[in-house]
Amino acid sequence: MSSIDQFDTFTLGDRTVKRLGYGAMQLAGPGVFGPPKDRDAALALLREVVARGVNHIDTSDFYGPHITNLLIRDALAPYPDDLVIATKIGARRGDDGSWLPAMSPEELTRAVGDNLRHLGIDALDVVNLRMMLDAQGPAEGSIEAPLTVLAELQEQGLVRHIGLSNVTPAQIAEGRRICEIVCVQNHYNLAHRTDDAQIDDLARDGIAYVPFFPLGGFSPLQSSTLATVAQRLGATPMQVALAWLLRRSPTILPIPGTSSVEHLRENLEAAELTLPDDAVVELNGIASEPSS
Q1: Is the pTM here over 0.90, yes or no?
Q2: Which fold has domain 9-219+251-256?
Q3: N or C: fewer beta carbons within 10 Å in the chain?
Q4: What is the 3-state composition of the chain as percent helix, strand, coil, each rounded to the nearest 5?
């Protein structure tokens, strides 16, 4: 059995987590909307996640909506003492499955309440404020109003720690003036490295960086260089991509998602993979390769 009991940890807020976590988004139906095709398989996968030593699960009540949180509760409650569940607010789903901003004080407060109720807990370990100023990625604009609402919910004891998602460096700086930020969750992987400098800046202050789409997202990473390095190391391309993230900075906490126990096992084996320096040099060049 592949587990990560012996691997690196990092302090997220006041909780110690294994650096390789699990993202629950893929447990919902197609397009992260509606229920999974096989609910029993989804529950079994979540139990396998915890059994293999993962203690950092990323979710949101707008996955489904409500689906992944209800699955997590049904599979894992009462929760292990060391399990950290991170969620996010700031969006909602339209009836057609569209992703819509939900940034008013009322919407943010309702979202925290929904996450608490569906997970079956009294306080959320980590809540990421997911900015929705541009559906395509981070866009400039003040985050003071919504983040102040979240900080007030933290003061009420409903939220333990606060993070930011889909944000620019200026927004991170603004957020840190309002409250303590324990993590930043942005799009980052071997081929998408816009946040390189930001990762290093956050690392100097001990702030975790949680890359979403660490394996490319809905379109898996495709690179001849990645495939060649993986073949040489006797690993899969996705294992190499995760191992590269783990080596990139000790503050990076990847949260690869899957609905397959086999893929979960493969992902966790990435924590055992040591990348030689020459392989890292090759992999670093992927971001500058022409798009296929």
Answers
A1: yes
A2: TIM Barrel (3.20.20)
A3: C
A4: 40, 15, 40
